[in-house]
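Please fill in the sequence for the structure shown.

STRUCTURE ENCODING:
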């Protein structure tokens, strides 16, 4: 599985890669730079939309454009005109939290979690149907890893700080969650542990057509592929320390894109890892699931 550069222009904190199911191109965000970016085949540089506050994640909208979850609320971005419309203010104190990882389910409801700036377990998960935004789960610090099984009967959600991935039984018709249970637990880094000996903590994720959960291990320099029962099936070593999220794309959904970060990394690490912050790509045997459209 040779790993290649999808884009040589690094982001500071790349996140939320989205292979647009209608436009057949890759969107992603740079949280720290407050940007939405788009990579298209044959173009050397991404197109960029500058925002007023940090975008945690994006989703393709059924009516065109993107849904952007920012620190200052949920926004509609018209990628043709650049128009930027606020759909809803944040349901939290934006001085203490911001939106982070999020995706639509198959019915078009948008699920998005938050991150607590003070790194306290006060972040939560919200469900937005275009009219209401309801808090449906809480008790974590850094909401990440949202994904669904191919049959939409299970939803995954992780807390990066807790090094834990959870699973819920999911009622697709009602958009309701069953009790939260532990799916995978990873060892936290010890105070005296070298980074090279640390396996990382779970960040963004994606599910493939076999129902396996691909998770980026931030600071662990690897992607993991876990079976639906939580068994480790594959470890993919990466050329950068901080992968943030995978996404399946390409016409056959067998190109795996990986956003990465370079924010606050030591100078010697960045010198040794020039691809830090770039979008990476590789070909995989099992295709992914197509991104769902948010229907507001």
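FILLED IN BY: designer on duty
SEQUENCE:
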């Amino acid at each position: 599985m040779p790993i290649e550069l999808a884009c040589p222009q690094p982001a500071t904190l790349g996140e939320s890669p989205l292979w647009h199911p209608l436009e057949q191109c890759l969107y992603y965000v740079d949280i720290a730079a407050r940007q939405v970016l788009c990579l298209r085949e044959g173009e050397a540089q991404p197109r960029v939309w500058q925002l007023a506050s940090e975008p945690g994640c994006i989703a393709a909208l059924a009516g065109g454009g993107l849904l952007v979850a920012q620190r200052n609320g949920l926004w509609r971005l018209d990628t043709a005109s650049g128009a930027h419309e606020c759909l809803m203010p944040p349901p939290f104190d934006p001085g203490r939290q911001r939106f982070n990882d999020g995706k639509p389910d198959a019915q078009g409801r948008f699920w998005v979690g938050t991150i607590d700036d003070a790194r306290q377990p006060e972040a939560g998960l919200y469900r937005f149907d275009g009219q209401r935004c309801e808090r449906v789960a809480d008790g974590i610090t850094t909401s990440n890893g949202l994904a669904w099984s191919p049959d939409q009967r299970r939803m995954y959600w992780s807390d990066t700080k807790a090094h834990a991935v959870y699973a819920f039984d999911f009622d697709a018709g009602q958009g309701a969650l069953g009790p939260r249970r532990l799916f995978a637990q990873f060892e936290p880094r010890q105070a005296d542990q070298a980074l090279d000996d640390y396996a990382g903590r779970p960040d963004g994720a994606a599910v493939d057509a076999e129902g396996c959960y691909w998770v980026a291990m931030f600071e662990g320099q690897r992607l993991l592929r876990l079976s639906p029962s939580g068994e480790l099936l594959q470890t993919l070593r990466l050329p950068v320390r901080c992968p943030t999220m995978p996404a399946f794309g390409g016409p056959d959904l067998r190109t795996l894109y990986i956003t990465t970060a370079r924010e606050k990394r030591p100078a010697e690490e960045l010198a040794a890892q020039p691809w830090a912050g770039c979008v990476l790509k590789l070909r995989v045997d099992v295709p992914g699931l197509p991104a769902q459209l948010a229907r507001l």
